[in-house]
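Contributing new records

If you add data, match the layout below exactly. Sequence lines come first and carry their own label; structure lines follow with theirs. Keep one chain per record. Anything else will be rejected by the validation script.
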Amino acid sequence: MGLRWYHFALWIAFIGVMFALPEYVSKGTLRTLIFANFLAVFAISWDVLSGRTGYISFGHPFLIGIGAYTSAILTKRFDFPLEASIPIAVLVTMVGGLVVLLPALRIRGSYFALVTLAYMELMYQLVQVIRPDLTGGTRGMSGLPTLTRGAENGFYMSTCLMLAVALSTWLLMRTRLGTALSAIGMNEDAVSGSGLSVTRLKMVAFLFSAMLAGLGGAMYVHYLGSIAPRALFDINFVFTIIVAALIGGAGTTIGPIIGAFFLTFLLEYLRPWLPGAERYLIYGGVALVLYMIQPKGIFELVRQSLSKLRRAT
């Protein structure tokens, strides 16, 4: 019980710090924090499936793209209100993603990773050639309705989204379902031998992951006010999501948040010296070093440091 209240106290402290930041940082920093919040949402949604069950997905933007394009098309082409388009986008992401990826849940390892990567590439090609009058083709769409204006409002909006996603995931993973999902990543055969349906558990993890990805994608595109297939389905975007979860601490909830903030600020501060894709080479090297030092990520490094400090005192 004490440990549970300790965790709740940490969450409350984290929330308090986040909502106090606009009083102490510049608008430029707030905009960077907005992108860190969205990356945290995407990293958490990836981690629900891949970090917990061990089924590594290289096609997560496929799910993000379904949510983003569904909401963008509904609002831009059919004049749907945002309040209706975003829930529809989430539902379409869950249903569409499940129909397409359900066969992939029956395979393991590198085959699953390759199948998900193929779906992302297929989505990238389809949005350019099928009904470009709806999707905007290679140019995408601009002039989309936005959820809010201004750096401070955008920060509060993205922070509320990130915290809602993080807390709901944390609470889910503390249930028996969350324990079963983590057990799949440790030993899938043992879970299957215990009488549980591994396929059904993976389907639940995928649906929850798709829900979070669709929600994040829909809100992200309406924060930007535009959507472009080249940016959304870029391989660097995939690796940024995965690396954020891994170096922060896969299989945890706070880990992907730490990794997302670390990577976003690292890439932003490298921009003046390396404005091009070279930045990704640097962050890849940093991520590799961190992973070699502690495979369980920054979260585990912090936890071990705090544990040593408590023992020392």
